[in-house]
Design a protein that fits this description.
Layout: H1 15-19, H2 34-46, H3 51-67, H4 71-84, H5 89-101, H6 105-118, H7 123-135, H8 139-152, H9 157-169, H10 173-186, H11 191-203, H12 207-220, H13 225-233, H14 239-258, H15 282-285, H16 292-300, H17 313-325
Length: about 325
């Protein structure tokens, strides 16, 4: 079964909380590392701050938890805010994104809907709502949500790419190709849109256009295992596909050497460290499905029992390619 890539849903977890000002100078701040922010905000909350300060501390700590992939804790902080401030837009957005990461799509839709009721032109919330519909196979509702986002931001590549996927679920392949094409016209380096257009062309039997799209996708992002597999399916195994296959194999070796003592790196099995996500589940923690940024951040910033790993950018690309292959 062909893998469909949803593309970027939001820029990053916590766009609301990350954008606000620093809550305090003692480390309970968006500028602090996640561990420092969590410790400082917890200390601040234990001091029984006034309601405004408490809301800021919960938002900062929730965003820090989300950056660490500790989604239950993050959702708890955002829920604490919403209990006292039900219309807090930052908390609604951030909790909705955490629910997406947890694959709690109905809960995510509820938060995005509440936010849209407060701010109808909130493009990120509309895209999140569309994503939650798409993930539950409610393709018509997804098209409506992405279309509404595009009314406010016609050049939004994420909304175009994801609406294309929704059209494809509705078997409207021509409309899907049109959206993917518009996405890459506005964003020429949008590898996922090329990849998804390749799937659509392949479905229509247009082998040459599919091969060209898969190659373009791999040229932009060599970690896209789906594009590599598409070239293999179409008998177009050339340098791009061969290089991608080698990158996956190399990524598995890098992961076995550096990551297996903490993470489950294969298609089955539990992680040795119960707080470390299995590699096969990492995409669910990052609904953006663009893993380079969060994985690079996790490797660069030691946390819990994870040390700072001496991995090069090329090694990170190899690990990402391997994770994508799962």
């Amino acid at each position: 079964m062909k893998r469909i890539f949803f593309g970027l849903v939001v820029a990053m977890i916590g766009t609301g909380a990350f954008a606000m000002g620093a809550a305090a100078s003692d480390g309970c701040s968006k500028r602090s590392s996640p561990d420092v922010a969590i410790e400082a905000c917890t200390r601040q909350l234990a001091g029984q701050p006034d309601s405004a300060a408490a809301i800021k501390a919960h938002l900062v700590r929730g965003a820090a938890y989300a950056r660490k992939g500790m989604n239950e804790e993050a959702a708890g902080d955002f829920t604490s805010v919403l209990k006292v401030a039900p219309a807090n837009q930052d908390a609604l957005l951030d909790r909705g994104e955490v629910y997406l990461a947890q694959r709690s799509f109905k809960l995510a839709a509820d938060d995005f809907t509440a936010l849209i009721a407060l701010k109808p032109a909130h493009v990120t919330a509309l895209i999140g709502l569309g994503y939650s519909y798409l993930a539950r196979d409610q393709a018509e509702d997804a098209v409506a949500a992405f279309s509404k986002a595009l009314e406010h931001d016609p050049r939004n590549g994420v909304a175009l790419n994801n609406r294309g996927l929704a059209y494809k679920k509705l078997d409207n392949v021509d409309a899907a190709i049109s959206d993917f094409t518009t996405a890459v016209q506005f964003h020429p380096l949008y590898a996922l849109a090329y990849n998804n257009r390749g799937y659509a062309h392949e479905e229509k039997g247009d082998k040459q256009r599919a091969i060209r799209d898969y190659r373009d996708a791999l040229a932009i992002d060599p970690s896209l295992a789906g594009a590599r597999d598409g070239l293999v399916r179409l008998g177009a195994v050339g340098s791009f596909a061969a290089e991608a296959s080698q990158r996956v194999a190399d990524g598995k070796m890098v992961a076995e050497k550096n990551c297996a003592w903490c993470h489950a790196i294969g298609p089955t099995g539990a992680s040795p460290n119960d707080r470390a996500p299995a590699f096969r589940d990492i995409h669910a923690r990052h609904p953006i499905l663009a893993l380079r940024a969060p994985i690079t951040r996790a490797i660069a910033t030691p946390h819990d029992a994870m040390p700072k790993l001496p991995l090069s950018d090329a090694d990170v690309d190899r690990i990402i390619a391997y994770i994508n292959s799962l």
